[in-house]
Amino acid sequence: QVQLVESGGGSVQAGDSLRLSCVASGSTFSRHPMGWFRPAPGKEREFVSVISWSGSSSFYADSVKGRFTISIDSAKNTVILQMNSLKPEDTAVYYCAADPEGSWREPDDYAYWGRGTQVTVSL
After folding, report:
1. Bridge partners of residue 122, in order along the sequence
2. Quick one: CA dihedral 33, 91, 121, 114, positive or negative?
3. How far apart are CA 123 and CA 108, in angstroms?
4. Is the dihedral of CA 6, 79, 119, 61 positive or negative?
5. What is the CA radius of gyration of the chain?
6. How many other C-beta atoms lie within 10 A of the C-beta of residue 94?
7. Is 74 helix (H, G, I), strand (E, B) or coil?
């Protein structure tokens, strides 16, 4: 099994920054892409960002492009989501996911999920 544990959430004001971390572990963990998702109106979870294990490829939702940066520390099995210029609409539980079997942007294609970390952004 694979375990994903998120951390770094919190309550901030608009314009502030937060840094989310997701540590992967488990006997069956291997080097797969890792992504971040959050709930959205009408969707259980929407795509935020994803990165390849090598770090050479990364993608972002249009809503966070230019404000969020995803990175990976392969030696520590950790993916980081640096969130800058936060907006109230970024308020959500952020979930880490690993091992997409199809589209990297589709939550249904991911095999493993963390429990999430809450991000709250106020005016």
Report:
1. 13
2. negative
3. 33
4. negative
5. 13
6. 25
7. helix
Tokens of 30: 């291997």
Q: What is the pLDDT of residues 36-45, one digit of tens each?
A: 999 998 889 9
Exposed/middle/buried for residue 106 (C-beta within 10 Å: 0-12, 13-18, 19+) = middle
Mean pLDDT, the chain, whole residue set: 94
Which residue in the block uniquely carries the two structure tokens 């939550």?
107
Residue 86 · residue 16 · CB < 8 Å:
yes
Task: Give the total residue count for the chain.
Answer: 123
Q: Is the pLDDT of residue 29 over 80?
A: no
DSSP for 75-120, written as a single string:
GGTEEEEEE-S--GGG-EEEEEEEEESS-TT-GGGEEEE---EEEE
